[in-house]
Amino acid sequence: MTNILCIGAGYVGGSTMPILASHCPEHRVVLVDINEKRIAAWQSDQLPIYEPGLDEIVRQTRGKNLFFSTEVNRHIAEADIIFVSVNTPTKMFGKGAGKAADLQYWEKTARQILENSTSSKIVVEKSTLPVRTAEAMERILNSNSNGLHFDVLSNPEFLAEGTAVRDMQNPDRVLIGGRETESGQRAVEALVELYAKWVPRDRIITTNLWSSELSKLVANAFLAQRISSINAISALCEKTEADINEVAYAIGRDERIGRYFLRASVGFGGSCYKKDILNLVYLCEHYGLPEVARYWEQVVVMNEYQEARFASNMVASMFNTIAGKRIALFGAAFKANTNDTRESPALEVCRALLEERADVVITDPHALENARNDLGELAKRVTFEPDPYIAANNAHAIAILTEWSQYTQLDYERIYNSMVKPAFIFDGRNLLDHKKLYQMGFNVHPIGKPPLTRLTTNHRA
Ligand SMILES: NC(=O)c1ccc[n+]([C@@H]2O[C@H](COP(=O)([O-])OP(=O)(O)OC[C@H]3O[C@@H](n4cnc5c(N)ncnc54)[C@H](O)[C@@H]3O)[C@@H](O)[C@H]2O)c1
Predict the structure, then answer these.
(1) Right CATH number for 307-445 from 3.90.79.10, 3.40.640.10, 3.10.105.10, 3.40.50.720?
(2) What is the pLDDT of residues 217-234, one digit of tens each?
């Protein structure tokens, strides 16, 4: 039996370790976190993160070979392999503020591992880190005088929130980076063996440490770049009567371009894309590559433009004033099938509308609590309403900000009848049937297509 520990029971630790435990019943997996509330939630029926399919896997493994705890030190001592999936947010102070990764949680964990270890261990970086972080980790860990040896591996996580269970069960690839020393290669092999319980070996890629660390940043930069690219073209479509869906389909049929991630929207969100690109930008600056830095930075600039453009289009379309108007935001999560609201475009749009003194109501099937927390002080000025029909009642406008499939099933006739006229719908995800909505009487503003607008207030086609 191998004692496996994961430090950090957030989105990554919490969605990967239960699956690892389910495929390795002979091993013991413990997830620890300093956040007591989070650990209590993992031990309850109301898990702290919403991921389709995760509840069932946790139910099957919890108490058998999967355990949750706040006793970080005790479990470090017992562990053979330690995954570290603590948060690595953007640094908000000092050198590199606003771009570099804040590695304070990371370094604390390394020191904690060192202080509590009585045997040699494999330490696996699962968090997303700047390239060459493993070097610092190795130096801290191997600075002990009691003969312990630590092998540091990089095993970045590529899952996407909302499909985390599927992605972990059936990954496109697993990436493991290690030192090219004998003991480094033995550690790599031990981790390969774990994954090989359910992942075909030809999908397990092994590289040197630095390629592995850098590949994660680059993967996120490329994914976000595709979204910013299509969003940039959506702005041009709106000026030229080209239709972004048609353009995306036409270009995506070229296999060299491919069709994935070519959906125009109000913008990308989530805790990773922005912070990882800025981290990449910082690294390029650090290594004296300003042209490369500016190139990738533009992906983030374009995303901010798209969010701001969406909000200002709303104001402009609604006769240049939204002060005191009730506006219902459909969706708070940064994407469908997650309760995560970190960097959510929905909250960016919310902030912009509050600036204009709108009366904002947000609805979402799973993310209202996180939205309230993320909005901080501003939350006092927002109404949080789980029922979309109540949210839309008496509203001047609806904005679709998360592509929840539930929103395609709503009775928009009923919603239209309950709204103030002229009623507007701003579809930030191009999710709905725009022609149908227009025929009901709505003024419809999609992304990257001409708006369907009416001059008279209650004319019905
Ligand atoms: N969320 C994603 O989709 C995703 C995907 C791939 C990679 N990543 C990366 O994985 C890492 C974790 O991301 P996340 O979304 O799970 O973050 P998260 O904030 O949800 O979880 C991190 C957890 O670590 C805990 N923690 C911090 N310091 C600790 C310590 N010293 N001891 C014990 N616990 C500690 C925090 O309390 C928190 O619960 C980040 O580096 C992120 O970039 C995230």
Answers:
(1) 3.40.50.720
(2) 999 999 999 999 999 999
